[in-house]
Write the structure tokens for this entry.
Amino acid sequence: MARDAAGGDSTFTVLVATGANATIAVLKFVAGMFTGSAAMFAEAGHSVADTATELLLLTALRRSTRRPDRRHPFGYGKARFFWALIAAVSIFVSGAVFAIIEGVRTILGEDSEQTLAWVAYAVLAVSFVLEGISWLQAVRQVREAARRDSTTPMAWLRSTDDPTVRSVFFEDSAALVGLLLAFGGVGLHQLTGSSFWDGLASLLVGLLLTGVAYLLGRTNAGLLIGRQADRRTVLALRDALADRAEVEQVVDLLTMTLGTDEVLLCARVDFADTLDAAGVERACVEIDAELHDRFPDLREIFLEPVPRTDPVVRQRVLERYGPAGADRLRGEQP
């Protein structure tokens, strides 16, 4: 139930952002044509990039919910990460590059007279309200998700495997900062008569978008490559396995995020020597059922019986986690 609710919230958050950004893009382009402001054109490009991003995120939400099939037995959850990565590239290509070029052109060009500055101020004010509504929706969802996971909003944003909410939050935050930069550029141009300030504001908007695109792109690339589940989940899974009477020791534990709220678990465990082959089979079935019941995010579970003294497995664990991590995996203090 919690997963379904979160998915619905994500879709609503993206839809709110899409409507706000599409409306704002039109207003900014009109204001840019009336005023000739580079900062307004840069902000219009910013909003076009954000609108394209939201459409890509809606595609991500739709594609990632497809059920597993023969060609994709682990499901389509990573489609959300792929389209979110494309959205980050879109922010850079259609927003940042345009704003930087417009800013450099204005700074190096001749001073131009600003006209109808009040149009720019009015559009910026309306845009700030609309962006603020979208931003508040994203903040509300982040806070609710952080409260469900018993963590802080910033910690949730760093660790979440839901790229849609994170993208909307950072895009809207950047949009609000960008509007303030545009307001400053238009105001200083009006006060000084120099279009340098207008161009500088446009350049700063482009650099701001570049930073946001890099942040989102790096995070989504990590999820696509195959990131482990969050540390609390990994430790809870280890404890759940170690608490079983049939398990002598957890030898190795591997997890991978398959999609939003979808985790793959591969565990190598040393079963009690008193168990025969049938006993190991029954234990595997019971452990699978228990873990699926306790951890709804688990999509697939693979259990492999291995002796704790196996040198090959031990070396793999040491290479992956280091001595301290290997001790924690066994439930020992490093």
Observations:
- The chain has two domains: 2-225, 231-329.
